Automatic annotation (TrEMBL):
Keywords annotated in UniProt: 4Fe-4S, Carbohydrate metabolism, Gluconate utilization, Iron, Iron-sulfur, Lyase, Metal-binding
EC identifiers of the protein: 4.2.1.12
Binding site for [4Fe-4S] cluster: C156, C223
Record note on cofactor: Binds 1 [4Fe-4S] cluster.
Pathway in which the depicted protein is active: Carbohydrate metabolism; Entner-Doudoroff pathway
SUPFAM superfamilies on file: IlvD/EDD N-terminal domain-like (SSF143975), LeuD/IlvD-like (SSF52016)
Higher taxonomy: Bacteria, Pseudomonadati, Pseudomonadota, Alphaproteobacteria, Hyphomicrobiales
Superkingdom classification of source: Bacteria
Protein species of origin: Aestuariivirga litoralis
Entry-linked Pfam families: ILV_EDD_C, ILVD_EDD_N
PANTHER family xrefs: D-XYLONATE DEHYDRATASE, PHOSPHOGLUCONATE DEHYDRATASE
Domain Dihydroxy-acid/6-phosphogluconate dehydratase C-terminal stretches: 408-598
Functional summary from the UniProt entry: Catalyzes the dehydration of 6-phospho-D-gluconate to 2-dehydro-3-deoxy-6-phospho-D-gluconate.
Protein name: Phosphogluconate dehydratase
Listed InterPro entries: 6-phosphgluc_deHydtase, Dihydro-acid_dehy_C, DiOHA_6PGluconate_deHydtase_CS, ILV_EDD_C, ILV_EDD_N, IlvD/EDD_N
Amino acid sequence: MAVNETISAVTENIIARSRAPRRRYLDKIDAAIALSPKRKALGCANIAHGFAACGPHDKNALRNGNAPNLAIVTAYNDMLSAHQPFETYPAMIREAARAVGGTAQVAGGVPAMCDGVTQGETGMELSLFSRDVIALSTAVALSHQMFDAAVYLGVCDKIVPGLIIGALSFGHLPAVFIPAGPMTSGLPNDEKAKIRQLYAEGKVGRDQLLEAEALSYHGPGTCTFYGTANSNQMLMEIMGLHLPGSTFVNPNTPLRDAITRESARRALSITALGNDYQPIGRIYDEKAVVNGVVGLLATGGSTNHTMHLIAMAAAAGIALTWEDLAELSQAVPLMARVYPNGKADVNHFNAAGGMGFLIRELLGAGLLHEDVQTIMGTGLSGYTREAKLGADGELIYADAVHKSADEKVLRGARDPFQPTGGLNVLSGNLGLSVIKTSSIPADRHVIEAPAKVFHSQEELQAAFKAGELNRDVVAVVRFQGPKANGMPELHRLTPPLAVLQERGLKVALVTDGRMSGASGKVPAAIHLTPEAADGGPIAKIRDGDMIRLDADQGTLEVLADLSAREAVKADLAANEVGTGRELFQMFRRNAGRADQGASIFEAV
């Protein structure tokens, strides 16, 4: 199948735009490849330090230097459900490595924070920047140069993008990402959302709310809604960095363990010591990036990736833009309905056909590049398979289903839920922002209403409880960008705004902050740049100004003359101390614009 014209044209534009930085990046990893494997050239004291704590078998293998050594970079902690299953992975990986004549060592850990725990709390102001901390931590872990390949254990929001950025800085090393999988299904997501709205209206108490949340988030694994964490996992598979079919297998099952062992073996089979060398810097190219965007759009994934994908691509010398995402969205149909874009969860998506079905359908419609490198040494057609458990407990594969088992959850490319991916870029006299429309009713795509300005989500919640928002309104929540307070998610805005919308009012949100990957049905122009802390036009809006948001035409305008107005300044002193925020002053000062990835790192 020939590649769709829009997919091809956007890819060619990205390649042309990236030519110089991509060449610099490839030259850098080629220089590192020429020195590989570096550990063989380490001094005797250096390498002795590196294997001092190993057992006799591993110590002998590392001492002789002929067997491949695998780095394990882990985001394990036992507070977060998504990362708790990783506790047992290193032992499995070491055992799998020894079985094929290699060794494996935990090279280092990276932090893993949960936006679900920090939502609405001051710790959330560290969340976005934790991505760049994770990238830095990954570089520290690999800096010992003892390794021939690496496996990365990470799942959630900022963890996988941070691991990718760090892995790409060691682009000469093969990289295999190993997921932990989603928790089993609990309280349906729409029921949980209803309880949240009732709580926002004061109709149920905290005990009922806590019980609903506990029934939703009830065991090991990722949250089952399709937020940033599960969008991450989809991306790793469609970009060829997971084993096929491995993404949405539940934790602590024989199949999940078989996937983990095979992932370790695969990483050891693609080092420079063998005949199938697959460094991540070569796999992660312009076509892989476009495939990732297509997957995000086809599944209605998290808006957080409008920043993460750009930052990740930049780490490989690839210049991806919001305009690229918007153009691709017009060509890619929405094929999945998973909460918040529907009632199902990711377990239902997987049961309906999952990633194998999705990739086959997208390839068949010419919406993905098949001719890419993957960790499997095949093109992307090798990912149209389903992982299964063989009679001996090992991983085997079967063709993915050719027909969705539940068309309310997953459909083919020729019979999608909607013809576009449901993501658009809004431009106008307020700057640039993004909007996710895949879960917004069509009659809510255009909102024109007077502004009500807030400098925190707490202010908006207080106004809602006081009955001050019971009217058509565009809530403007500013000074929430990277330079202001680290760009926290404003997920707590969803219940009150959804209540207003259900009362039949015209409601929208405009903010230079983020919304959760689980945000949904309220029109929200987010990641607005330039941000208020940079003196952007959003800092000039006043209460009562008419704002028009048109998601179909891609425009966001304040219907007032801002030219004579001074940008309002906010006292951000309270955001600079407490919960570790004083340590992140450098990050706030140096953060890039949202449309450039909101990163502290300079482009290659």
